[in-house]
Amino acid sequence: MESGALAAIQRQIQWNRLIAVVEEQAQTMIRTAFSTTVREAGDLSAGIFDLQGRMLAQAVTGTPGHVNSMAESVGHFLRKFPAETMKPGDHYITNDPWLGTGHLHDLTVVTPAFLRGRIVGLFANTAHVIDVGGLGMGPEGRSVFEEGLYIPIVKCFDEGRANETFFDFLRAGTRTPAELEGDVYSLCACNEAGARRLVEMLDEFGMDGLDLLAEHVFESSRRATLAEIAKLPRGTYRAAIRSDGYEAPVTLAAAMTIGEGEIAVDFAGTSPLSGRGINVPPAYCRAYSCFGIKCVVAPEVPNNWASLAPFRMEIPEGCILNAPRPYPVSVRHVVGQLLPDLMMGCLHGAVPERVTAEGSSALWNPPLRGGAQVSGPAAEVEDFEIITFNSGGTGARPGADGLDGTAFPSGVRTMPVEATENVAPVVFWRKELRPDSAGPGRTRGGFGQIMVIGAKGDAEFAVNAIFDRVANAPRGRDGGMDGAAGWVGLDDPNGTPLRTKGFQVVPKGRRLVLKLPGGGGMGDPRGRDPALVRRDVADGLVSEEAARDIYRL
User: If you compute the radius of gyration of the chain from its CA atoms, what whole number of angstroms results?
Assistant: First the structure.
């Protein structure tokens, strides 16, 4: 075998091993995390970077909002702590929304990796934690300073020694000190696991660093991405999408220009900044916009610095997708997770056969709180602060139905109700697929869910609502019909609705009812396979009336 072919095979083996390294990095965090958001839902990211702060590889486990924002954040760490000043055992941390992944509930940790005393790479990870103090996870803040503990880029471990001053501040600033401190240790352990495996890999292959492998991966990824862009029809394609917003509905507008060697997106026409915490920092906007494009244009190309470089975003100042410090951004995902649907709306004009219909998009993850902090001396349950992750249906695909109760674009797992009930005095009385919520079409959308949640003994508790797609249902494409809009309310006889955003108390004796949206349909419903319609009717997910009146069965 020629030496060139042998070298190519060896590089591929090294690349596969590197993916295994970062995946073990992520799995270490999942196994050691204290927060259920990480342990049960997988709301995290992990990756390895070169010494210039360029993302080389990411774990398969992780969310695009974390991964693609983190791809920008390591450079901020290096500007404050240059690589040549780092020592073995150092760990650096921040939750700065403008230097990390967009809100204070995400901790980002960066750790150097050393081979025989020389720094060879950087491991980074991000995890969503339960509580960082302040008003809690919700949209009510008027500035980021109200939203919780703000951690600049600092050392949390110095050559293996804990920064006790940092941990004193950390524990003092949260309602869940043991969990938060434990999560920081978990994030550091996660990076250390990656660094150990990297050293083993480098020794096994006789490598003295990552530079040659990085250049190969970057060049291959860049070429592959440009080749996929070259297959697209040139032009400018426009789309818009509506969010329920907070004070008023929000319009997200985009003009996507497919040109020579790049895809540029201009968000001119997007609604202005909000006075509440639904604003999106620009890195998070870029993260989910790039993900939405990449899903359609180059899904098989590894996600790294080079494959993301051809996607360029122009985000006007003053719009809700370019929030400046110190605007509130706590629930930036409610708006930001609509961006992949917006990108697919643009790409529908170029490659309609490759995009999906709109889905429920933003997670329905109710932050729940109870005890004396809600009910005062009359509290009937102990204090608790918990969040549970759930999803509506995804949009229909060109050749297949949408997915039921599945998180897209975030990719996090739905949390088992038992895991939440085990750590907080709450009861999930009902959790099932929502009939007739999937948008009809030749391929239908995914079904949403119905959830009924109460505190133990039906005690009083509170929900910090962060829901969307209630006033603006997911839209179908190409003749497909819209999915069902969401609904939030109480289980009283009148079905009292609650606001879709903001802190609200569920009174004693009542329960919270969530009806999660369904995904939009794709194509004329009359073209759907009758056997599939009959299956959904038999499963109780499509009514006889819908089968007759919509599907014409």
Answer: 24
Torsion angle of the four alpha carbons 292, 298, 304, 307, in this order, in degrees rounded to the nearest 10: -110
pTM: 0.96
- Classified as helix, coil or strand, 192 is helix
Task: Report whether 379 contacts 370 (CB < 8 A).
Answer: yes
Is residue 108 within 8 A of residue 95, CB to CB? The reply is yes
CB 121 within 8 A of CB 46: no
- Taking only the tens of pLDDT, the chain with its 553 residues reads 456 788 888 889 999 999 999 999 999 999 999 999 999 999 999 999 999 999 999 998 889 999 999 999 999 999 999 999 999 999 999 999 999 999 999 999 999 999 999 999 999 999 999 999 999 999 999 999 999 999 999 999 999 999 999 999 999 999 999 999 999 999 999 999 999 999 999 999 999 999 999 999 999 999 999 999 999 999 999 999 999 999 999 999 999 999 999 999 999 999 999 999 999 999 999 999 999 999 999 999 999 999 999 999 999 999 999 999 999 999 999 999 999 999 999 999 999 999 999 999 999 999 999 999 999 999 999 999 999 999 999 999 999 999 999 999 999 988 999 999 999 999 999 999 999 999 999 999 999 999 999 999 999 999 999 999 999 999 999 999 999 999 999 999 999 999 999 999 999 999 999 999 999 999 999 999 999 999 999 999 999 999 999 999 8
| 487-490 vs 235-243, strand pairing mode | unpaired
Coil, strand or helix: which one is 289? Answer: helix
Q: Residue 332 corresponds to which tokens in the numbers above?
A: 């930036």
Cβ contacts of 34 within 8 Å, gap of 6 or more? 178, 179, 180, 182, 183, 186
